[in-house]
Inverse folding.
């Protein structure tokens, strides 16, 4: 009987799934006590073939693939939890690569009572080749792009609102329930809201690290952050008290630009204010790009990082505004 069940939602991850499996194979925690459950949303690429080939060459690692007919992440996680046998559950991702000590450090934090749900820091790397992919990866780890999402850059352990790729005891699911399958994104944040509402602690330990591959194109980034913003709005309809300043700024900024643009048709003052706001925003983005370029010694970040941050702000902010009307689901 495995002690640890690693649950992986997956869909068309042929480019990265072998890196994940290889990382899990080389964990410092006993391989005989780990099972890997991959909830696949009926992939249409070579994902399943890659998994089967890896399992054939590494028969000492317990790997199971189950179907996720609904093809959503929360459904995949719930099906994985239902199929799991371990005392401890770890939620990973098809395009993540945990460090060798990942499982061991997660369990160590749980066993010493640091938190009810324990996770670490994303080490974000480019999801493609070229200067733009590097800019997107930089933006996805920059405080200007992600606000106070500490799992993207923290260096001190602390209780936090949420963590990605986390570990918890099976009893936690029995206490608060599984994932909300009506939320197609923001499922981890909503799960952690219920952890905290139940009196539990969500704990971040920066010694727990996993590589996460950012989107490789601005189009992919825009689609990702539109989903994030839209489903964040749906979650806020249920939990308005969870709104944080970093989440409020992008929609407020987008709304202010839209309002000033409309008012500028007949009001000269509005035109001046619109120009000033755009100029100030551009200045802040440029400063972030220059700082990133100097820090990483990569001149392309002067353009790449600001472009990516702007895409994140505008798509997330606009999508949140778009998603707010209507009833809470």
């Amino acid at each position: 009987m495995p002690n640890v069940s690693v649950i992986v939602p997956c869909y068309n991850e042929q480019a990265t799934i072998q890196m994940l499996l290889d990382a899990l194979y080389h964990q410092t925690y006993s391989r005989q006590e780990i099972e890997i459950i991959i909830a696949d949303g009926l992939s249409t690429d070579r994902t399943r073939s890659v998994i089967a080939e890896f399992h054939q060459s590494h028969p000492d690692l317990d790997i199971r693939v189950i179907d996720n007919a609904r093809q959503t992440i929360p459904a995949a996680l719930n099906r994985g939890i239902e199929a799991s046998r371990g005392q401890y559950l770890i939620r990973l991702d098809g395009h993540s690569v945990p460090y060798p000590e990942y499982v061991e450090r997660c369990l160590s934090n749980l066993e010493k009572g640091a938190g009810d749900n324990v996770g670490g820091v994303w080490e974000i790397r480019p999801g493609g080749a070229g200067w733009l992919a590097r800019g997107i990866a930089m933006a996805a780890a920059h405080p200007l792009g992600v606000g106070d999402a500490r799992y993207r850059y923290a260096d001190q352990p602390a209780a936090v609102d949420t963590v990605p790729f986390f570990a918890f005891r099976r009893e936690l699911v029995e206490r608060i329930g599984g994932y909300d399958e009506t939320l197609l994104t923001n499922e981890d944040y909503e799960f952690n809201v219920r952890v905290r509402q139940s009196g539990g602690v969500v704990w971040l330990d920066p010694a727990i690290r996993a590589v996460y591959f950012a989107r490789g194109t601005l189009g992919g980034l825009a689609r990702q952050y539109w989903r994030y913003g839209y489903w964040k709005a749906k979650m806020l309809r249920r939990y308005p008290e969870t709104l944080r300043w970093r989440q409020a700024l992008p929609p407020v900024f987008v709304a202010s630009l839209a309002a000033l643009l409309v008012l500028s048709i007949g009001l000269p003052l509005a035109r001046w204010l619109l120009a000033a706001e755009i100029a100030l925003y551009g200045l802040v983005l440029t400063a972030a790009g220059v700082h990133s370029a100097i820090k990483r010694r990569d001149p392309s970040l002067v353009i790449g990082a600001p472009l990516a941050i702007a895409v994140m702000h505008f798509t997330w902010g606009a999508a949140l505004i778009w998603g707010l009307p209507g009833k809470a689901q």
The chain has two domains: 4-220, 236-323. The two ends are 38 Å apart (CA to CA). The longest strand covers residues 202-213.
